[in-house]
Specification:
Layout: H1 7-10, H2 37-46, E1 55-58, H3 62-70, E2 78-81
């Protein structure tokens, strides 16, 4: 599945994506083919790579999710299901 993943095409239109740009990514010094995304995803899936658990909220619980985020008690990613 990951080989068919296209970040910009596969994100739903209402999804916001935050990232920092790296002038080196995609250059000869750091080619995209060397990016470890596949190894990270496979490691998490197989349980070899630890990850913080995500908390998933239904859209109706957006206030609860926001309150948790503002309380600084959130561990891992917070996901809002639309």
């Amino acid at each position: 599945m990951l080989e068919n993943f296209d970040l910009m095409d596969d994100l739903p239109s209402a999804t916001r994506l935050s990232f920092f740009s790296s002038g080196m990514l995609g250059t000869a010094a750091l080619p995209l083919t060397d990016a470890p995304l596949r190894a990270i995803a496979e490691g998490i899936s197989a349980g070899r790579t630890p990850s913080l658990p995500a908390r998933i909220f239904d859209f109706g619980d957006v206030r609860q999710a926001h309150a948790l985020m503002e309380s600084d008690r959130a561990l891992g990613k917070l996901v809002e299901r639309v």
